[in-house]
Design a protein that fits this description.
Number of domains: 2
Helix content: 25-40%
CATH topology of the largest domain: Aminopeptidase
Low-confidence stretches: none
CATH class of the largest domain: Alpha Beta
Radius of gyration: 22 Å
Shape: globular
Order of helices and strands: EHHEEEEHEHHEEEHEHEEE
Largest sheet: 8 strands, mixed
Structural class: alpha+beta
Mean pLDDT: 93
Distance between the termini: 45 Å
Number of helices: 7
Amino acid sequence: MKPVNEFRYREPLRVRRTEVDMQGIVFSSHVLAWFDNALAGYWRALALPYGDTMRGLQAEIRVRKATLEFDAPAHHDEALAVALRCARIGETSLVMEAGCLRGDEFLVRGEMSCVFVDPASGRPTPVPPALRQALLDFETGAAMAEVRVGRWDELGVDARPIRTKVFIEEQRIPAEMEWDDVDAGCVHAVAYNRLGLALATGRLFEHVPGTAKIGRMAVLPSVRGSGIGRAVLEALMDAARARGDREVLLHAQTSAAPFYLRAGFQPRGPEFDEAGIAHVEMVRGL
């Protein structure tokens, strides 16, 4: 198995009481569940949400064999991490290496051999070239999403379904409040994964001379926390800088304020209601 520093993906966890025996040591069967749960996070880190990706490819990935090697026990309430990497890609197969870590110490080492199959027949089918390349590129540290910036007539066809999903369906904002005439004159950004699936969007327009306003920031639920939203935000701020804006502001939902704080925005003024949701104005210099 490769050393710890060659695992790009890590997912933190804390050992729960229900996962240990009377001595406070983790039952071995739970480790495999940890690895399987972390695999979903690995796909999210690739900007390839598993369900949507496999439906698009009309395929499934099935585990054929899993092995575990225990070096040391894990105990109740310990803060651990699961590390994952794609070790090998065959014609129809994937081999994932996994490790349960305490710091940089391997407690458990594992390997999952998976096969890419046709869901109807259950028979192996070749790993698509685009998926193969995405896996290889992720393991070498490459970016997994591309952000395109353009006009509504160029990107609206991909931005609209994302905004519909997030704002109208998830947050229950009335459609008549979501769609406005501002879109036509905005700079829009849409993030796409390696298979061409649109995942996140946002827009930018002039608020007052020298100050840009970012709005309609939306990320599909399946890839939240993967850095896709930050990539869209950065692309919009780059567009504002390129046209000479000195400042950018936005109305952040209060639940999203920590995301914008990490990007250098600061709150300004009291909270207020917008579309039935608590917001705060946030601003940063460019």
